[in-house]
Amino acid sequence: MLKIYPDTETIRAQWPALLQFCQELHQQFDQSGTVLFDSRNTIRRYELEGTPLIVKRYKRPNLLSGIGYGVQRNSKAHKALRNGLELIRRGFRTPCPYAAVEVWSQGGLRLGECYYLCGECTAPLDLAKTLNDPVTPDPEVARRFAFYAAELHKKGVMMVDLNSTNVLFDPKDFQETDPAKWFQLIDINRMSFLHDEKQDEFSLSQRLENLTRFTGKLEVFRLVARHYAEAYGLPIEEFERQAVARKLKHDKMWRMRKRITHPIKNRHYGDPPQPSQHREGASKE
Fold it and tell me: Which fold is adopted by the domain 2-118?
């Protein structure tokens, strides 16, 4: 049993070839397209009527989780589609969301595979290459990312996986005057939005916690925190102090969790590592 979002009539009216592609995807995915990433999730690149198309297949949930999705949760693919559309509506950039496909079994009670289909992101850089990998981070990218993160929060957007490989950019976009246009987000299935008229509703604690994941380098974090305070009009020294305290607490808890979950594989822990790069919507790895 297949479920396709948006509904089939909407896709048929907008792009008939995409509907057929969605209907056949689960049968052809493993033998078609070009593999961009293959681990927990798999990402493949296609061309449909001359248009690049990126498909991300999420790991199949176990039995209990699969039934749970059927009872009370949207699939990761459905969430990514919904979040992508909402990001664009709020003025932010992400590879164009096209569709989500879910494969159900047991009479539609258990979710199997699910797929997110989007456009191709051609932005050549991510934060890891400019802030975390170099010995000396790019101060201009740090400043712009800080203002971008503040813009997300001001407009009621909380990107849960706000890490360095999920934030991509093309330097030419820095010519834009709107900070929302400076970067693009990928891996967007975990997000939350505020939907009331007053958008600046996230608490200081929520915003501080959201900033802890993009780097393991404290000097880079301090730089971004100071510019974030500037963007919000907050006292810079006091905000930096609070942000660093939250960052140190977050990293300590991260190391403790890893000691419990990987006691043999990882014996020594320094700063939290940057996530492995799987560029959903990207043209290369």
Answer: Phosphorylase Kinase; domain 1 (3.30.200)
The pTM for the full model equals 0.87
Amino acid code (one letter) for 40: R
Three-state DSSP at 36 gives strand
pLDDT in tens, 179-217: 999 999 999 999 999 986 555 579 999 999 999 999 999
| β-sheet with 125-126: strand ranges across | 125-126, 167-169, 184-185
Phi first, then psi: give them for residue 160, nearest 5 degrees: -65, -45
Q: What is the CA radius of gyration of the chain?
A: 20
CA distance 277 to 282: 10
Helical (H) or strand (E) element with 275 = none
Reply yes or no on domain 125-261 having CATH 1.10.510. Answer: yes
Q: List, by residue range, all CATH 3.30.200 domains of the chain.
A: 2-118
pLDDT digits (tens, 9 = 90+) for 17-37: 999 999 999 999 999 999 999
